[in-house]
Design a protein that fits this description.
The protein contains 3 helices and 6 strands; from the N terminus they run αββαββββα. By secondary structure, it is of the alpha/beta class.
């Protein structure tokens, strides 16, 4: 009798797994890692110079470079150096940058950890087509970093590193959204 229970239990487990696999196939969502959502006619992309509407100087170059790197890593598109050579153009606007304290230490309540939050407007548009391929007016990305309150130079370096990581993370997430239709 025990042999039957073991075989019966195993059969039920296999049936359950098969049911999960089959039901997942009927899901309406799917990823397009090769960028089919954008159409195969889009092969060359130009990443335009980002505008910077924040008091933080020169961050637009870091964000633009992060997006260029992400398109190169994605291997679906070729990055071109001029808008005239592109099938599509990505435009970015850095709308807001906020630094917020997260953690304090000591009697003086000195900040030891901060959060940096950036808000972007991003638009990917095909050349010669009035419709937008992908657009996000309120793209928000954030990251946390240690703030060394004892050394101003170290604190500034930590913020620059956090901003660089933030730009890479934003580019990766936005790229996935562009090609996956989310």
């Amino acid at each position: 009798m025990k042999v039957w229970k073991v075989h019966n239990r195993a059969a039920m487990v296999y049936a359950g797994i098969l049911l999960l696999i089959l039901s997942a196939g009927g899901c309406g969502y799917r990823f397009s890692p090769a960028g089919e959502k954008l159409g195969q006619e889009i092969k060359r992309v130009y990443v335009d110079v980002f505008t910077n509407n924040t008091p933080e100087a020169n961050i637009e170059a870091g964000f633009r470079n992060a997006f260029i790197d992400q398109f190169i890593q994605g291997r679906r598109f070729k990055i071109v150096s001029s808008e005239g050579d592109a099938d599509a153009v990505l435009k970015g606007d850095i709308r807001n940058l906020v630094l917020s304290p997260l953690a304090y230490r000591g009697a003086g309540n000195l900040t030891v950890e901060k959060r940096i939050t950036v808000t972007l407007a991003l638009t990917l548009r095909a050349k010669g087509v009035p419709d937008t391929l992908w657009k996000e007016d309120n793209f928000i990305q954030w990251g946390d970093f240690a703030a060394d309150f004892r050394d101003l130079n170290a604190a500034q370096a930590g913020q620059r590193d956090a901003l660089s990581t933030l730009a890479k993370d934003a580019a990766e997430r936005a790229y996935r959204m562009m090609i996956s239709d989310f």
